[in-house]
Design goal:
CATH topology: Glutaredoxin
Number of domains: 1
Strand order of the largest sheet: 1-2
Shape: globular
Radius of gyration: 14 Å
Helix content: 25-40%
Largest sheet: 2 strands, parallel
CATH class: Alpha Beta
Number of strands: 6
Oligomer: single chain
Order of helices and strands: HEHEHEEEEH
Distance between the termini: 16 Å
CATH superfamily: Glutaredoxin
Length: 101
Amino acid sequence: MPEFEKADTQVLGISIDPFPSAGAFAKSLSLNFPLLSDWPKNEVTRSYGVFDEARSVARRVTFVLDRERVVRGIVESDTDMMKHASESLRIVRGLEEQGRG
């Protein structure tokens, strides 16, 4: 998180679980960023195309948006959470270099 803060980057998570469950999950992992709930309609995960209707789950995907809210990078891994952080930070730094951060 300190590296994202240095890059003046806002980090948010979105869960399809109801807020109490998402909150308990965030607390259990000591997340240091907000975890929002997309329950019950899953409108955000559907709009980003990551909600699996057949299984009623959302894929674990990170979207990096620039200041104009344009998606500039996508990181996907259901198992490697460190990949999400490291790849997202790499994308953010690239945006900074391009003046799009």
